[in-house]
Amino acid sequence: MPQNPFVIATKTVNAEVYVFDYSKHPSKPPLDGACNPDLRLRGHSSEGYGFSWKVEPYIPFNINPAGMQPVLTTTYLLAFPSILASIVGSPFLLHVKDILNPESTNWGTAMGLLLTYVFFSFFSSTSLTL
């Protein structure tokens, strides 16, 4: 994937995408407020966004079983890197998932899930919250 750290794209409110090479622009914007992108992309007619990151091998998984609900917190233990504990959604659903074996993830009762999350979040000095 070609990359240039000086190229920035931003989506406007009128569905255009402006592309800037900030190595060719001044550090401060012009006083008249004019926007002069290096490239204007037109034609997108509805909402949308996209992003890209460094492509590396990974194990795909769905971190958010509640669909479009926000992920409030996700925690994992370095001792068990394939298991994620997450609180998602507006009703604060608890979700624990083994990302290496997602079909076989069965953590039992809600109390079992809660205790697992508490263990992951509060009783481990090696936990990392994303």
From TrEMBL:
Keywords carried by this UniProt record: Membrane, Repeat, Transmembrane, Transmembrane helix, WD repeat
Keyword Transmembrane set for record: yes
InterPro entries in the cross-refs: SecY_dom_sf, WD40/YVTN_repeat-like_dom_sf, WD_repeat_RBAP46/RBAP48/MSI1
Membrane-spanning residues: 75-94, 106-124
Name assigned to this protein: Uncharacterized protein
Species annotation: Brassica oleracea
